[in-house]
Amino acid sequence: MKHLDVCLTPDLLHLHKLDNSIVVVADIFRATSCMVTGLAYGVKSITPVATIEECKLLQDRGFIAAAERDAHKVEGFDLDNSPFSYMNERLIGSEIAMTTTNGTLSIAKARASAVKVMVGAFLNLGALANHLRSEQYDVLVLCAGWKGRPNLEDTLFAGALAEALKDQFMLREDGTLMAQRLYNQSRENLLSAVSNSSHVRRLQRLGISKDIAYCLQTDLYDVVPVLRGTTLVAMN
Ligand SMILES: O=C(O)[C@H](CS(=O)(=O)O)OP(=O)(O)O
Ligand SMILES: [Mg+2]
């Protein structure tokens, strides 16, 4: 039987062997929710990069560039890290370069050793689960967390994916079981489950509460983003 493991923060990624694994990166607030939304709305590709300098280089080469640090858009760039910014007709068919505080850094780390890197969010949970059932590989859900710390929203997503795949994958590690139990205790009201989380408090302080409810919606899109080389595209 295939295995599904959960890595609660990228700082623990070195503990996982990835040579037979698809890594699913999850950054619910808000990077992977933006990626799923953008690709669902017709963005051609999203190139995630770890640093602002790399993002700037790609902007100079003609990419539309999204750069966020500490939840704010970085000056000089075109897009922020709100999923609503990616529902824009002018982005249809575009190539986006993106750097965010946690999410794109996690993708860069996963890229180094995974067989394949995919992107997950509540927004594409069902489509992603269906796709993973058809793959021959183990799955590692990499929670982007916040600056090396685990967070509630990404752990809840990991639990939701584990719950969806529990009949096809062996859930063998305590971190996975913790995420699954947390999700099952919270699934009736995810919004209330994250209400006192650090990121929700941070986004509320900044007046961007509508992103919170949006990112917690399940199965809005059936797009499955996969990294091809350095670039995320919708799998078809
Ligand atoms: O923009 C976001 O929501 C976060 C910023 S932070 O967690 O407040 O620093 O970035 P992300 O990379 O999407 O976690
Ligand atoms: Mg985050």
From TrEMBL:
Its EC number is 3.1.3.71. InterPro entries: ComB-like, ComB-like_sf. Keywords: Hydrolase, Magnesium. It holds the Pfam family 2-ph_phosp. It catalyses: (2R)-O-phospho-3-sulfolactate + H2O = (2R)-3-sulfolactate + phosphate. Its cofactor is Mg(2+). Belongs to the ComB family. This is Probable 2-phosphosulfolactate phosphatase. It comes from Dyadobacter subterraneus.
